[in-house]
Every structure is written in structure tokens, then in C-alpha cells.
Amino acid sequence: MNSIRIINFLLVFLLMLFLGCASNPNKDISVSEMKRLEENKKRIEAFFPVLAKQCKPLINKNLEINRIPIRELSFKDAKKLMEAQVFMADEQYEESIAILTAMESKANDNYTKAVLNRNLGYAYAQSDHMNDALVSFNKALTYGQNNLPHEILQTLRENVAGLLYSNDNKNKAVFIMEEWLKNSNKDVASAYYMLAAMYADKEIDRIKDALCPAYFAVTSSEEPKESYYVLLNLIQYELQDYMGSVNTLEVMIKHFPEEVKYKRYLAYVYEKLAKNDRAFEILSALHAHGELETRKAYETLAKLYKKKNDLVNEKKILNEAKAKGLLDDKKKK
Fold first, then answer.
1. How far apart are CA 103 and CA 91, in angstroms?
2. Terminal alpha carbon distance of the chain
3. Model pTM score
């Protein structure tokens, strides 16, 4: 499993995801909704008893958040902004950017500058001008201090961090996400996931620090994304926490039964733990259903037959893999 390549792919996927939907910031939720989410979190935590004890909260849920007075644009600016947003919704990004840029050049107060640059950031990002998006989101974050609601500032931090990371300014991206942690009193799965992926990058080299944010990404989601589980499992495997990896994979198999590859991965980890009988049980069952599929799966099952001194079936498995062209395909693992 090429963990770093997968981690980078997941981060790019997340970047595209939040740039597409971050215009709807987290809103305050009711007490009953908060209670329901907490109960759901405890349900998910029950699948990870070791990590539940090991990982201490990364945010201060009692953090006092300054409430910013509600502010509004002037009627003229609000009308022009709506016009720009209509262009953006219709994917006419150049027209939207032209309106917002002209407005921003004439803006006199920080609130208006923050609102306009935030919208400019989305327009640039959705038109694939990521460097310009980074500049605009940074401006929005700067002008937004004491002017924009806390939830919007936190979303801007995620945007800026993701763009910095994709622009290879990885240490600065980590710094911004750690600022997000310091300023948060709510669990946000996407932010935990992003920070974990950054820590897991070999250039950042903080794989141990990645474990708990990855765990909280899973437990903070009502229905955790498959990518959150994948990242957690990869980090556990990189840390040689093979029993932790087994636990996560078993949860993944339960939640994503159609993904046969997780059963294969589980067998590989069991073999790593020298639990050969369990590995053999999984791979032989997959073979019976025609689901080995990969070179590594065939080679591992053949090796397990050999350890059982069953040379007949070892040869049979290798011949079957060869007939399928898998033994000569070094790219398919």
C-alpha cells in the first residue's frame, strides 16, 4: 500500500470538495441535535476502544467564542454582490470575478473587503485559478478578524491551508490548521482529516501526530466517509500498529462490504502478525468466490499453502495467477 500517494490523493479530493461547498459555513445547531451527534459519536467510538482512550481532545469545547455583531453590506453593494453570485452559479466566473474585483478596489471598510474577497476566493477556485484563490482567501481571513462570524473564519482557515498545501507550502498549511484547532470549540471531521493527511506527509514527517486527528475525523462524522477510514488505517499501518489496522479494517469491511480489497488488506496484515491461519481463511474464501483478483493476493495465498506444506495447491494457485497474467504484471499489487 503506497500510503503517501493515497494520502495526497485524498487531500486533493478533499480540497475539491470543500472548495465546492464551503460557501455554506457550519451553523449553530440545536441542543437536541448536539445530543444526537454526541450519541452517534459514542456509537462510533465503541468500534475503537484503544484509540478512544489514547486520543485526548484536540480542541477546547468550552472555548468562549466572541459573537460578532450582525453586519450588512450597503444596498448597492448587496445588489452587485448578488449579481456576481448569479454569474458564479451559472459558471460564468470571469464575469463574476470582474464585478467582485471592481467592488473590492472601491471598498473602504474591512467587513466589505472580507465579504468580497471570500466570494472572490470561491470564484477563482471554481475557475481553477488556485493562486488567485489563495490570495483572496488570505485577504478575507485578514480583513475578517472581528468582522466575519467565527464559523466563516474557521472555514477560511481550511480553505487557505488546503491551497497552501496544494501549492507545496506545507509547513505553513500545517500552521494554519493548528490555528484552526486553537480557535475551535466544535469537532469538524473535514478539518481533522485534512490535518491528519498533512501530518502523514513524509515532508512534514509527523506521522505519530496524524493518528488522533484521523481518529477524530472518523468519530466526528455522523456517517464517516470511506476516505476517513482509509486514512486512519494507512496511518496505523505506517506506525506498525498492526492490531489497530486489523480493527479498523474489520470496521471498514462491515461498513463497506462491497469493497473486497479491504478483506485482502486484512489478510495481509494478519500475515504480518504471523496469524497465518486467519490470513489463509480470508484469502481461501476469496479464492473460492473468484475474488483474489491481484498478484499479491495470489502470491500470499500460495505462500500460505507452502507454509502448510501443501505444495500441490501452492502450484495450482501460482499457475492460476500465471494463466491470468498476474505474475508478469508488476504494477498490479
1. 19
2. 8
3. 0.85
